[in-house]
Design a protein that fits this description.
By secondary structure, the chain is mainly alpha-helical. It has one domain: Orthogonal Bundle (Cytochrome Bc1 Complex, Chain D, domain 2). It is about 50% helix and about 5% strand. The protein contains seven helices and two strands. A two-stranded antiparallel sheet has the order 1-2. The chain is globular, with a radius of gyration of 16 Å. The N and C termini lie far apart (about 55 Å). It binds heme C.
Length: about 150
C-alpha cells in the first residue's frame, strides 16, 4: 500500500515536469494564487493603472518584474540579499521565479553561495504548481517588453 502511494506520487511529479516544459503554469489559476500576494504586492503599469492587487507596498510593484533582471522597481528599497543577487546577474526566468517563491531567503543563499544572506520577502508558496501558475499570471504584465527595453 505504502509503495503504491509513493509510486503514484513520483508519477504525478513527473507528469507535472513534462507539462511545465511545454508551457509554464496556468495563468487563470495563477490569478487566484495572486490573492496570497496582494497583501504585499500590486501590479501598476507605467501610466499608474492598477492591473492587479490594491495598494499594498510592503513588496515591490511587480509590473514588468517577470522575465527581466531582479530588483527592477527603482522606487523599492530591496534587501541587501536581493540587491547582491541582482548585481550578480539574477534574472527572473521561470525556473528562478518558481524556486524563489517557494523559499525566497533560501533561494538567495543558494544563488549567492552565502548562508548569512537574508531576503525581505517572508512569504513562501507551499506548492510548486501554485508557484508556476502565479508565474504565468504575472508574466502577462509587461515582463517581456520590460526585458527587451532594459
Ligand atoms: C509578506 C509580504 C509579501 C508577500 C505575501 C509576498 N511578497 Fe513578494 N516580495 C516581498 C518583499 C518585501 C520583496 C522584496 C524582497 C527583498 O528585497 O529581498 C518581494 C519580492 C518579490 C519578487 C522579486 C521582485 C523583484 O523586483 O525582483 C517577486 C517576483 C515576488 N516578490 C513575487 C511574489 C508573489 C508571486 C507572491 C505571492 C505568492 C508574493 N511575492 C508574496 C513581500 C511579499
Amino acid at each position: 500500500m505504502f509503495k503504491l502511494v509513493t509510486t503514484f506520487g513520483a508519477g504525478s511529479l513527473l507528469a507535472f515536469s513534462a507539462m511545465a516544459q511545454e508551457s509554464v503554469g496556468d495563468a487563470a489559476a495563477g490569478e487566484d494564487v495572486f490573492r496570497q500576494c496582494q497583501t504585499c504586492h500590486v501590479v501598476v503599469d507605467d501610466e499608474g493603472n492598477t492591473l492587479a492587487g490594491r495598494n499594498a507596498r510592503t513588496g515591490p510593484n511587480l509590473y514588468g518584474a517577470i522575465g527581466g533582471p531582479a530588483a527592477h522597481d527603482a522606487d523599492f528599497n530591496y534587501s541587501d540579499g536581493l540587491t547582491a543577487a541582482a548585481e550578480a546577474g539574477l534574472e527572473w526566468t521561470p525556473e528562478n521565479v518558481i524556486a524563489y517563491l517557494q523559499d525566497p531567503t533560501g533561494f538567495l543563499r543558494e544563488y549567492l553561495g552565502d548562508s548569512g544572506v537574508r531576503g525581505k520577502m517572508t512569504y513562501r508558496i507551499r506548492s510548486e504548481e501554485d508557484a508556476a501558475n502565479v508565474y504565468a499570471y504575472l508574466a502577462q504584465f509587461g515582463g517581456e517588453e520590460a526585458a527587451a527595453t532594459n
